Amino acid sequence: MPLGIVSAWNKRRRSWSLDQNDPWIYKRLEYWQLDDQTPHSTKRHHGSSVFTLKEMEDATCSFSDDNLIGKGGFGRVYRGRLRSGEIVAIKKMELPPNKEAEGEREFRVEVDMLSRLEHPNLVSLRGYCADGKHRFLVYEYMNKGNLQDQLNGISETKMDWSLRLKIALGAARGLAYLHSSSAIGIPVVHRDFKSTNILLTEQFEAKISDFGLAKLMPEGREIYVTTKALGTFGYFDPEYTSTGKLTLQSDVYAFGVVLLELLTGRRALDLSQVPTNQNIVIQVRHILNDRKKLRKVIDPEMSRSSYNIDSISMYANLASRCVRHNSTERPSMADCVKELQLILFTNSKGLRTGLHLFKMQPRTT
Ligand SMILES: Nc1ncnc2c1ncn2[C@@H]1O[C@H](COP(=O)(O)OP(=O)(O)OP(=O)(O)O)[C@@H](O)[C@H]1O
Ligand SMILES: [Mg+2]
């Protein structure tokens, strides 16, 4: 158990004063560099390393465009090869000066969290670089990129229903691990769960990334009041947005939105629609428990032979509960894992017995 982080948190609970031990208060860059500045890679906890700027340049051929794999709010992401030969993803922090403090905090949280968390459904941090003003995060390389691109981006692969269920279950397991105290002794809220933060391996195993906004939930407190809602439009828990009360259930709402993306193949926020109909939850919420209408929103890209309607309706029912307005009515992530296991089983059983064909016969009366 990471005693350091727990005791720092307890100290904060006792005083609630803004002191130097508070991991959430911004500190000048120099503060974090005290023991991180070493000329060569040094092993840290859980095998993550500290890299130099030179190593980052060598790994990416000086950040050549050929190695660019993506761009997000934090900066560009490059494919790189470390001196050890390992292929990695290197995220380069590129923020305007007025966002540097925020970026530094996210950088620090990401390193802190990922160095302590270990689970097959969380992307692993291979190391980081904090060389002068330069900041890089180095992750295991995820061959199939992010889920959103696989669903409605450039990808050629048409994901069938069982593959989508496998991804949903993997992501649910990752979140359930974060929410359980078994991770680091205190539950962790991700706060920016979304389909671009679910990365996929060659075998389509899902791993959650981007912990920069993650927050520890203090023991005995189920609610944490924040003044500024942080996260991404389309995934915001409406209760958190209106009250500022952050709970583990805010992640469950975002998970429900991802479940809907997997079912429909639509984006969480579709800006081509009129403003009142842009949000996927608003578009489909009213039909999730209506078996007949439900068929109309199933992603047409999905092979019909890969699903049975029983598993689809169980899944839609779970999604509808995850996106309930009232957070106390949403299931826990542990419940989501159990239900998704049952849904996967129902789907495979239905396909084996040909149940789905029987159920989907066109009505003659
Ligand atoms: N470990 C990784 N392996 C492979 N590709 C990655 C990895 N990390 C990130 N990427 C790719 O780089 C893209 C940009 O990632 P990044 O996390 O910076 O932004 P984002 O999640 O898309 O958006 P936001 O900044 O709003 O969170 C991702 O969408 C993904 O396609
Ligand atoms: Mg991301």
UniProtKB/TrEMBL annotation:
Gene3D superfamilies: Phosphorylase Kinase, domain 1, Transferase(Phosphotransferase) domain 1. It is found in: Cell membrane. Its main location: membrane. The keyword Phosphoprotein applies. One of its GO terms (cellular component) is plasma membrane. InterPro entries: Kinase-like_dom_sf, Prot_kinase_dom, Protein_kinase_ATP_BS, Ser/Thr_kinase_AS. It comes from the Eukaryota. PROSITE patterns: PROTEIN_KINASE_ATP, PROTEIN_KINASE_DOM, PROTEIN_KINASE_ST. GO terms for molecular function: ATP binding; protein serine/threonine kinase activity. The keyword Cell wall biogenesis/degradation does not apply. It comes from Papaver somniferum. ATP binds at K92. Its EC number is 2.7.11.1. PANTHER family: OS01G0750732 PROTEIN, SERINE_THREONINE-PROTEIN KINASE PBL28-RELATED. This is non-specific serine/threonine protein kinase. Residues 63-344 form the Protein kinase domain. It is an enzyme of class 2 (transferase). Coiled coil: none annotated. It catalyses: L-seryl-[protein] + ATP = O-phospho-L-seryl-[protein] + ADP + H(+); L-threonyl-[protein] + ATP = O-phospho-L-threonyl-[protein] + ADP + H(+). Pfam families: Pkinase. Keywords: ATP-binding, Cell membrane, Kinase, Membrane, Nucleotide-binding, Phosphoprotein, Serine/threonine-protein kinase, Transferase. Belongs to the protein kinase superfamily.
